Amino acid sequence: MKIVRSYAAGNWHAADGDKGVELRDPTTEEVLARVSAEGLDMAEVVQHARVQGGSALRELSHEARGELLIGMSKAIHAIRDELLELSMKSCGTTRKDSKFDIDGASGTLYHYGALGKELGSGAFLEDGDGEQLGRSSVFWGRHARVPRNGVAVHINAFNFPAWGFAEKAAAAILAGMPVITKPASSTCLVTERCIEAIVDSGVLPDGVLSLICGSVGDLFNHLNGQDVVAFTGSADTGLRIRSHENLLSQSVPVNIEADSLNAAFLGDDVEPGSETWNLMVREVAREVTQKSGQKCTAVRRIFVPDSRRDAFVESFLEEVSSRVTGSPDDETVNMGPLATADQLSSVLDGVNKLKEVADVIHGNGERCDGVGAEAGKGYFFAPTILEARDEGGADVIHDLEVFGPVSTICRYDGSAASAACLNSRGAGTLVTSVYSDSDDWVHDFLRRGGSYSGRFYLGSEKMAPQAPGSGLALPSSLHGGPGRAGGGAELGGLRALDLYSQRIALQGSKRTVETFVRP
Ligand code: NAP
Hints:
Elements: E1 2-4, E2 6-8, E3 11-13, E4 21-24, E5 31-35, H1 42-58, H2 62-78, H3 80-91, H4 95-119, E6 125-132, E7 140-147, E8 152-155, H5 163-175, E9 179-182, H6 188-201, E10 209-211, E11 228-232, H7 235-242, H8 245-249, E12 254-257, E13 262-266, H9 275-289, E14 299-305, H10 309-320, H11 341-355, E15 358-362, E16 384-388, H12 395-399, E17 406-412, H13 416-424, E18 429-435, H14 439-449, E19 453-459, E20 478-479, E21 490-491, E22 501-508, H15 510-517
Parallel strand pairs: 1-5, 8-9, 8-11, 9-10, 11-12, 13-14, 13-18, 14-17, 16-17, 18-19
Antiparallel strand pairs: 2-3, 4-5, 6-7, 7-22, 15-16, 20-21
Helix pairs in contact: 2-4, 2-5, 2-6, 3-4, 3-6, 4-5, 9-10, 13-14
Bound molecules: NADP nicotinamide-adenine-dinucleotide phosphate (NAP).
C-alpha cells in the first residue's frame, strides 16, 4: 500500500503503513494510499524552514526569487501528463478539469516568477513615495516592506491540490518567506507528486519548501509573530484556526479563504438570445458543473428578472443537459464524480435542505451511476438545479453552500437595488457576476453593494469575445472576499505579498532611507 509522504527538514517522511486515513479513487472506490503525518516533529519542521529556508531567501533579490518560482513552474510542467493522470484517478476530475488545477499551478508560479524579474535586484518592496518629514529634506521618511522573519504555513482545501499549493507558495517565496504546505488529505497525492518534482529538480535552497501530508498536529503551537498562516477550506475549520490560542496570543496573521455563496445576476436589459444572454447561460452552466461544482468560485445562486424567468430556465436547462456524469476515463464524460464519500453525503444532505424551500427543476438530487463506471460504485452526482419558491429565495438559499454541481434559480424584480440587496444576503462572496449591457445598471449595483464581494465579474456583449468566466482566479486579480468568504486576500499581483511582509516606516537622512529601498 502506498503511504503518502511528507517532506520536512530536508527529508522525506512516511508514517507506519497501518496509520492514517485511506485515500480512494472516487470513480471506483478502490483504496489508492494511506496518509498520516504521525512521527513528524513539528517543532523541528518549523525551525528548519525558518532557519535554513528563511535565511536563504532573505539573501536573494526579488529577481532571484522569481527565478526559483520559474524553476518550480517548469518542474511541475515537466510532469504535466503524469499529474493529469494522477488528478483524474485520485481526485475524480476529468482531464479538462484536471488541467484547470495543474496548468493553473504552473501558470501562477510562472506569473509570479515574471513579477519577480520585473521587481529586479531589490530585496525590499517600496511602499508609496518618500516624503520630507522635517523642515528640509534632511529628515526624510518613506515606507517599505521587508520579508517577515518566519515561516508561511499554508493549509489548503481538497479541490485544488496543485493550484492551491502553488498560488500561496508563489506569493510567499517571492516575498522572501519559506513555506510549509499542508494539502487536504483526500487529494494530497497530487500535491505530493508536485513537491517531489520540485525537490528532485534541485531548484530550491534547503528549507524553502516543506510538505505535511496528514494532520498538522501541534504545529500551530510552534508559531510566533513573525510567522503567517494562510488557510483555504470550510468556514468551520477557518474559525477553529482563527481562534487557536497560540495564534491569537502571538498575533500571528491568519488569512482565511472560506465558503462562498457566489451569485450571478441577469440584468433586466438583457434580451433572450442576445450575446450577453448566451454568455450568461454558457458561463453560469460551466460555473455550476466544472470540477463537479467543487469550486470555491462556483455559482450557487442565480437571479433572473421575473419577466425573463421562462426563457432563461429553458436556455439554461438545455445547456446544463449537455453534461455527462461519469468516469474521467470515458471520453463521452464531461463531469466526474465528487471527490469523496463524505463530499457526496454532504451534497445529498444539502440538497435535501434546499428542497424545503425550492423545487428541483433539473436532476433529482440523488446519487447516480456514472457513465463508464461500475454500477453502484463511485461518488457520482449529476447536476441538480433548483428554483426558489419565493421571489428572492428563502434564507437557506443564501446561507448553505452545497459543494457540488448544485445551484438555485431565484426570481427578482430586475432592479439594481434589489440585486445589490440579494447579493448582500450571501453575507460576503468571493465573486459575484452580473450580466448586463447597461453601464448605468451595473454602476448603480456596484454603488449600492460593491463591498459585499471580493471580485465582480461584469459580463457584457463588449467583453464576450475574451470572457474567461467568473470562476477563473487570475493571478493579477484579487482572490478573497469579505465576511462569510473569510475576509482574506490572495493574489492580485504584488498585493499578495502584503501578507508575507512587514510594512515599516523609515525615518532618517534621505540618502540612508532611499538607498535602503533602492540600492
Ligand atoms: P476543510 O474540511 O475545512 O479542510 C480544509 C483544510 O483544513 C484541509 O487541509 C484539512 O486537512 C485542514 N484541517 C481540517 N481541520 C483542521 C484543523 N483543526 N487544523 C488545521 N487544519 C485543519 O475544507 P475542504 O472540505 O477541504 O474544502 C471545501 C471547502 O473549502 C468549501 O467550503 C469551499 O468553499 C472552501 N474553499 C474555499 C476556497 C476559497 O478560496 N475561498 C477555495 C477552495 C475551497 P484534512 O484534509 O487533513 O482534514
